[in-house]
Structure formats: C-alpha cells, structure tokens
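User: I'm writing a tutorial on reading structure tokens. Could you give me a worked example: one chain, its sequence, then its tokens, then a sentence or two explaining what the tokens reveal?
Assistant: Sure. Here is the example chain.
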Amino acid sequence: MKRVIIKKGNIFSVVIENSYKVYLQYVADDMTQLNSRVVRVFKQHYSLKENPSMDEIVKDEMDFYAHTMLRLAVWDDVFIKVGTHKDIGDAQNLMFRQTGDIDLSKITRSYKWYIWKINKPMIFIGQLTEQYKDYELGSIFPYKYIMDRIKIGKYLHKTVE
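And here are its predicted structure tokens:
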C-alpha cells in the first residue's frame, strides 16, 4: 500500500454506490474532540467521469461538517485524495454540539448538551434549545456514517434531542 500524506486543505473524492461522487476537504484538527479531523462535505454530486478543478470544488455550497477518522477512510480507499486547496473556509468559527449521555438507547431526550468551537472548551447548555439545534453533531463519525449522511441527508445512528 502506498503512503498517503494527509494535510489540512487536502481534498478527497468519495464514490457513493458506484453512481456518483462528492468531494470533501480536511479543514481542521479539533483538540476538544480527541484531536479528531474535521472535514467539510460539499453538496454538488458529480458523475464518476467528471473531474472538477480544486477551485471549482471549494466554491461549491457546503453540505455539512463532521469529525471523522480520516486516516482510516484513506487507508481503506474510501476517501481518495485528489488534490489540495488553501481555501479551507471559516473552520475556526464552526459550532458543534454533543450530548453528555452515555447510553442513548435508554433515552429520547437529553438534558446534558454541550456546545463548542474547534479547539475551545465545551460549554454546558443543558437542554437543547432551538438556538443550538442547527449546530453540527460533534461526535467522531466513522466514514460509513458520513457516507450515509451524504446519501440520505442524515446519520443513521440513534440520536436524541
């Protein structure tokens, strides 16, 4: 297996069900969330034959941001490095949310929500209010979950409010 060096700004293609591909970009490391990699996923779906320029890709509308195990996705040839671009957006001002509950199978509503910006301390907010519902979930997602969200617009694992 060849060695792939991963750096902020790298852009990866992700093939979805052998029918189309999307692109994502590595934009930050988040020490608050176990030093995980943060990627931004772009909305545009491309045919498998299309190869847009890096400039075209980063100008696309954002779909979502996610924490993930980037190296594993690259190792498994799921995220294929296609280039790099210095424009990584405004990653430092992203807001994430996460529940402090451990066993989500036993609850439908959490009263232990936290919010944070990349590399900043988590802030306890208690119950999730409308003000914070649009913040990205800050869990570290396996690449399969990210592919699910690309396909159907949401994560398939159990979530709570």
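What the tokens reveal: Helices lie at 54-59, 70-75, 143-152. The beta strands are 10-16, 20-30, 36-42, 62-68, 79-84, 95-99, 113-117, 123-126, 136-137, 140-141.
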